[in-house]
Amino acid sequence: xxxxxxxxxxxxxxxxxxxxxxxxxxxxxxxxxxxxxxxxxxxxxxxxxxxxxxxxxxxxxxxxxxxxxxxxxxxxxxxxxxxxxxxxxxxxxxxxxxxxxxxxxxxxxxxxxxxxxxxxxxxxxxxxxxxxxxxxxxxxxxxxxxxxxxxxxxxxxxxxxxxxxxxxxxxxxxxxxxxxxxxxxxxxxx
Length: 190
Hints:
Distance between the termini: 9 Å
Order of helices and strands: EHHEHEEHEHEHEH
Low-confidence stretches: 180-190
Radius of gyration: 16 Å
Oligomer: single chain
Strand content: 15-25%
């Protein structure tokens, strides 16, 4: 369907973890994040991307100004192609930070925008099984849900709940870094 409207919902922490593992296992020269506008076009193929959302936790600038500035640099690059939605980062006694509210934001947006008929297909970039019920709810509203994940990080139940799945591979990441898209990626598919 050429007029199919697609929205991307990107679980930032999940993608960051997958990229770190992909770099470690395959290619240390890969960036920390792909260019999401190019990766989105690879995933959407001939379909129209209406909007992309990136969900993550953000450091408090007053409590952790150094990490906030470091994050801001990365987030400014991501903002070039995605709307940013922030949860909280809470520090545990062990010193480790955990995200709070991020999955809830993604779930609310994905369901709300499906209910408003803002898209035909949602592409969820995550391997997190916590989104199984979200996917089921969106599909019950008559929307398609596709999953993009790193093969070593997927939830088989989440994969089964979706209409279609895409492996995020090293070659896909490399293609998303190019300044122009390969000609075969611009041809209308199936």
